[in-house]
Amino acid sequence: MFGWRARLGVVVPSSNTTVEGEFRRALPDGVSLHAARMPLESVTVAELDSMADDAVACAERLAHANVDVVAYACTTGSLLHGSGFDGDLERSLSETAEVPAVATALSVKRALRALDAERIAVVTPYTDELNDREESYLNDAGFDVVELDGRGIEANIGIGTLRPEDTYRQVRKVVSELELNSDSSSRSESSSKSDSEPTSNSKSESAGDSKPLADSVDAVFVSCTNYRTFPSIEALEADLGIPVVTSNQATLWDALRRPGVAGGAPGRLGTID
């Protein structure tokens, strides 16, 4: 029997081509995946707003497969109306399917808190309108969004064509900007110090050094469940020295915890129960 360990029900936008592929490759043995789809073509406020009612209908149908947990796999769709809406969405899906439910936006917050991350850099494929909403959502949740970079893509099918190397390069671009800003700040502080303090015959070895990335941010968050990220997570963590959280990774990690299944999510997050 498939799903002898757990059956994961996932609700995805109709144009999402990434969630099922990433989840299936990462699921532990004995866990099966069962999907239902909500109509969405463009990642806009209007289309995202219409998905909540569709999500409930999807959860009802997933219950027919006796799933053990339902995951609403859309980041902006679960944060669209700010704090409170995310929890209401989870409760609505849980009551409908009569099993635990998670929504990506809340899963991301749980993941960042599990990693003790407060200062974060955010990378997205979104337009400015959605980036602004996401930044407000994260700030309201107590996180400090130090840097945010979006690709400005509206068509969800276009987001799904992005490759893991696109994720990697976009994150490295943001990190480079952070390191440049940190280096400029260090030089400015050093210059101010030298103006106010007696000069020394010895050169300062640290005046021009960049601060470690961990001094600027605690983690990087890559948003969007249609942005393929799993193959790049561990490489980014190894190269940057800080945790990387992605929408699909956080959703899978959070969902698997509900039926008590260990493993699955890649990266440092996957080592946390």
TrEMBL record:
It comes from the Archaea. InterPro entries: Iso_Racemase_Enz_sf, MaiA/AMDase. Residues 179-189 have a biased composition (Low complexity). Coiled coil: none annotated. Residues 179-212 are annotated as: Disordered. Gene3D superfamilies: 3.40.50.12500. This is Aspartate/glutamate racemase family protein. It comes from Haladaptatus pallidirubidus. The lineage of its organism: Archaea, Methanobacteriati, Methanobacteriota, Stenosarchaea group, Halobacteria.
